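Consider the tokenized backbone below.
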């Protein structure tokens, strides 16, 4: 089955997560994506190495379904190759600082001079306009500047999340924006710039907390895993592990009180009349839930809570997540082999399913420069010209 984006050509100059994963999502739904790397491999290829040549776990996740060429775009011959690539492309993805885009001639004005209807999808650390527009940053910058890290943990020290949610959230926003730009181009024939920013993503994820602060000046402080606007909402120790339980809304609280066998106690006390009141008195409710969980195994707790239609889940290690029967049965991941791996890598599919035009992981991530000759020949270069580019250190 042809992907919904079949016929869309994407050049991926992205690095690390926000750009590459945006391009990966487009590839999973049928776009042809060409990853353009440094001749000795871009630095994001080697994060958390798992392969015999140093390829990393992050690279395997965010570069499936792509072709890969190597290129030095800072040399005149490299610029000629890039012009041919851009002339055939619909989208250029480049999460690089504005000054780097200009130096590489990947800024919108340079691209538009080659392909008037090109779409440039970019992501920066801080966005703009603003005094920090030209600064660089990673995922953690967005986390710490959005209020998220301040509110995480017990406050001393503050904790950032171990996963790069700002980067992946920016990739999702950029993929959404790219699709919107493609739809607009189909109507008007115009290209445009799609611009994401790590800080903008982080602020959008923490926005409700910021709204609450701005409107009622609540001045919240971190409370570890204990929820602040509803209860019970915490992570609880069981006889053999930990479980999370989150109760929000009065219907769920009534189910919880019924499960505790104490409806009279919890449903008639004005301290627990609504979510915010329960959040303000969350320690009292959490103490009761902690006693209930301590009497049960993790499996007993999540099964009982699940059957009562109360949101819950076990705290899993990475290996336990890989082994969990629901995660395995749901098919969220696909085993993908790669040269030099001791075993196939479990790569997550796009976390959205289309009933009629589903995405697919059709090919493994590319080895470094694997498709250089193929792509150059498609651009009109013959064998002698390709050999000369290679000898000159261009590809």
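A designed sequence for it:
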């Amino acid at each position: 089955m042809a992907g919904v984006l079949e016929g869309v050509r994407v050049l991926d100059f992205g690095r690390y997560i926000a750009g590459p994963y945006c391009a990966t999502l487009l590839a999973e739904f049928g776009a042809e994506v060409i990853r353009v790397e440094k001749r000795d491999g871009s630095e994001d290829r080697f994060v958390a190495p798992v392969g015999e040549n140093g390829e990393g776990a992050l690279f395997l996740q965010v570069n499936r379904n792509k072709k890969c060429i190597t290129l030095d775009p800072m040399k005149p011959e490299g610029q000629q190759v890039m012009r041919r690539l851009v002339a055939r492309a619909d989208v250029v993805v480049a999460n690089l600082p504005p000054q780097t885009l200009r130096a590489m001639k990947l800024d919108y004005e340079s691209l538009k001079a080659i392909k008037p209807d090109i779409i440039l999808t970019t992501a920066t650390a801080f966005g703009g306009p603003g005094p920090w527009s030209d600064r660089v940053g990673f995922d953690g910058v967005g986390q710490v500047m959005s209020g998220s890290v301040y509110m995480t943990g017990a406050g001393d020290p503050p904790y950032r999340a171990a996963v790069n949610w700002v980067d992946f959230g920016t990739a999702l926003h950029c993929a959404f924006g790219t699709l919107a730009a493609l739809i607009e181009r189909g109507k008007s024939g115009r290209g445009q710039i799609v611009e994401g920013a790590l800080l903008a993503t982080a602020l959008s994820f923490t926005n409700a907390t910021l709204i609450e602060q701005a409107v009622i000046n609540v001045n919240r402080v971190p409370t570890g895993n204990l929820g602040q606007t509803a209860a019970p909402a915490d992570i609880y120790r069981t006889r053999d592990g930990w479980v999370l339980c989150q109760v929000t809304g009065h219907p769920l609280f009534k189910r919880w009180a019924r499960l505790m066998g104490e409806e009279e106690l919890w449903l008639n006390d004005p301290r627990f009349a609504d979510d915010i009141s329960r959040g303000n008195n969350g320690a009292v409710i959490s103490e009761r839930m902690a006693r209930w969980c301590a009497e049960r195994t993790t499996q007993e707790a999540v099964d009982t809570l699940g059957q009562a239609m109360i949101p819950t889940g076990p705290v899993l290690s990475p290996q336990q997540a890989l082994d969990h029967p629901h995660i395995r049965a749901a098919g969220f991941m696909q085993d993908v082999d790669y040269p030099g791996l001791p075993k196939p890598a479990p790569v997550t599919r796009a976390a959205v399913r289309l009933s009629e035009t589903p995405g697919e992981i059709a090919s493994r991530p590319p080895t470094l420069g694997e498709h250089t000759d193929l792509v150059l020949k498609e651009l009109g270069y013959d064998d002698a010209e390709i050999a000369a580019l290679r000898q000159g250190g261009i590809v």
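DSSP finds 18 helices and eleven strands in the chain.
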